[in-house]
Amino acid sequence: MTHTPVEESLFQIIRCYCQYAAREGDVETLSLEELKALLLDNVPRFMESLGRKEPYYVSELFRAADKNKDNQIGFEEFLLVLGRLLTHYHLLYRRQLCASYCTRHSLH
């Protein structure tokens, strides 16, 4: 049985996390530099469309997700980063849909 597209996406997220976590230090966590590399290498257009390629944005995501304040992001903390990114992108997407609808229906 083949995986659904969403299941395959979830597996890819796990693989990506493990690949970047293994780059330095603890192989089970991401450092700030590993998180920056992961995001900029794997979701560059996503980050750019959010206007979030600035280093402070990734640093803020890192600080907000590092719940135990150990300067490392465990997998559960990484899910918080993804959740925040998806929330920001969802809001952007909804604004674009709304703007497109208003333009098509002359609702400026």
UniProtKB/TrEMBL annotation:
Gene Ontology MF terms: calcium ion binding; calcium-dependent protein binding; chemoattractant activity; transition metal ion binding
Alphabetical keyword list: Calcium, Metal-binding
Organism: Ursus maritimus
Start and end residues of each EF-hand domain: 60-88
CDD domains, sorted: S-100 (cd00213)
InterPro entries the UniProt entry points to: EF-hand-dom_pair, EF_Hand_1_Ca_BS, EF_hand_dom, S-100_dom, S100_Ca-bd_sub
Gene name linked to the record: LOC103668725
GO biological process: endothelial cell migration
Residues passing through the membrane, by range: none
Gene3D superfamilies recorded: EF-hand
Name under which the protein is recorded: Protein S100-A15A-like
GO cellular component: cytoplasm; extracellular exosome
Family annotation (SMART domains): EFh, S_100
